Amino acid sequence: MNTFFKKLKNEARHIRMSTGEKARMRAALFGVPSSAQVVRTPYVFISPPALLRGRWVTRSFAAVALVAVLGGGTAFASEGSLPGQPLYGVKVGIVEPIKVALATTPAAKATVNAQIAQTRVEEAEALAQNGALDATTSQMLADDFDKHAQEAQTAQAQVAAENPDEGTKIEVAINSSLQAHAAILTQLAARDGERTRTLATFLADKVAARASSTAEVAIEDENKASGSDASTSERMISVTSAVRTDAEATSSDQEHKGGGRDFSNLAAALKDRAAQALEDAQSALADAQLSASTTVQIQAQLSALQGLMDDGSAALSTGDYAGAAADFKAVLSRALITQAYLSAGQRLNPDIVAPLLQIHDRNHGDGNSGGGDSINSHD
Fold first, then answer.
1. pLDDT exceeds 60 at position 298
2. Residue 17: its pLDDT value, please?
């Protein structure tokens, strides 16, 4: 099958429209009468029989469209486009639907839809940073974010039902992204004018509400207990605290005794993923243009995470697989959130990183500026 698509791609590079086809297209687009006679195109594709049935038809057409778009570099150029810009229609109307069509497994669907949902949020952040976020665009981005976030979470649940370990890794990646970007939007809302503040807060609430079903329950319970609506910042603390509590619950006594799930494979898989995420965060910090104090603060947090990695490795060596999994899960989540904060500093403004770290410290109950030794997941 891969050979077929390679041949298809190579053949597509040589496709040219005939004079008659060009004339008819101009007529359709610009209303220019076409006097050209109908000429049958000389190019014919003969597909393998399997491509004529079911999902392969969709994948074939998606592959052809992808080749056509990528061939001119349009897809690449559209990646950074924002609502209202010329190539944005190509991005959301062609490139992203093709990516979704080519994602045929639940894991692939979860990943692709999560990436698209994150893209909508990053677009909102860029517009909010520039004071260009209006009500119509905000609603459009929120609706599309909700759609793809829901599809990502639905696909993740399907993965978890078949492979709990893989489902956990995807869940951590999705929730970490949601937590980070809800905090970023919250910070942008606190910095800008009234209109941007209102719209950014609206989007921050949308993203925070998606962070996890556990977090949603925690937010509702906290609001009922207080008898008043919580601010966006307070909701973010509830979201992260609930997710943190869920991660710590991984190391319950029942699981330690083997009465529940076998965590040996999960611990090993999370260890590799957490180590890579921590390395990526350290590389991102090395490339970041931050103040000396902010750099020291992040270095302290990453050092604490490395210590937690060591704790997980020690637990793993003694057969405490649930405890090791909880440690590695916490490292993975916080390393991914740190990466998102550093990315926001590059995309938006380096000055946004320090306030985000303060939110991070409050969410995790860290009393010092560096996160320090207070980071602990299952003691």
1. yes
2. 59
